[in-house]
Amino acid sequence: MVEMSKEILFSRVAIQKRVKEIASQISKDYAGRELVVIGILKGAFIFMADLVREISVPCRIDFARLASYGTGSESSGKVVMTKDIETSIKDRDILIVEDIVDTGLTLQYLVDWLKERNPRSLKTCVFLDKRKRRKISFEANYVGFTIDDGFVVGYGLDFNEQFRFSPDIYIINTN
Ligand code: 5GP
Description:
Blueprint: E1 3-10, H1 12-29, E2 35-41, H2 45-54, E3 59-67, E4 80-83, E5 93-101, H3 105-115, E6 121-129, E7 142-146, E8 151-153, E9 169-173
Parallel strand pairs: 2-3, 2-5, 5-6, 6-7
Antiparallel strand pairs: 1-9, 3-4, 8-9
Helix pairs in contact: 1-2
This protein binds guanosine-5'-monophosphate.
The site of guanosine-5'-monophosphate (5GP) has 19 residues, from strand 5, helix 3 and strand 8.
């Protein structure tokens, strides 16, 4: 039985405010350029949709799908790509958008995979950062909020496909 905590970790108002701040920073950093924004399915789809609507430079979008969590809340530790991007990224400015970075393995895998294709630049943007849980050293270039341990849902993030569509972010007790 999954219980949702009574306390919202980030409200929809706080989320939208932070998304605008990140988008404004990205728009400044890429002024005069065109971005290829790559979202990691499924979790990043809501954050990415909000973000690209606030970014003022032209964006192309694409998606990759990577899996490490089978079901439940424990990572298998092994990353598998189940859908590659379809856009040519050679000599382009790439921004990978992810819902949350935890061990760092998923993003590092995609960064290494895409670097092989010689983009002009490649940066990462995560909405949530569980810094203390890294298994490798990985730093995202843009971070929404840094959080402690605890399993979060909402704003695209699920637990067994539940809670993705909550506009607010919660911590749940998965025991
Ligand atoms: P990493 O490879 O950095 O360990 O994990 C990244 C992936 O793990 C994320 O894309 C996300 O799918 C999943 N993940 C890590 N922590 C959480 C969490 O607290 N809640 C949810 N729903 N997924 C998480």
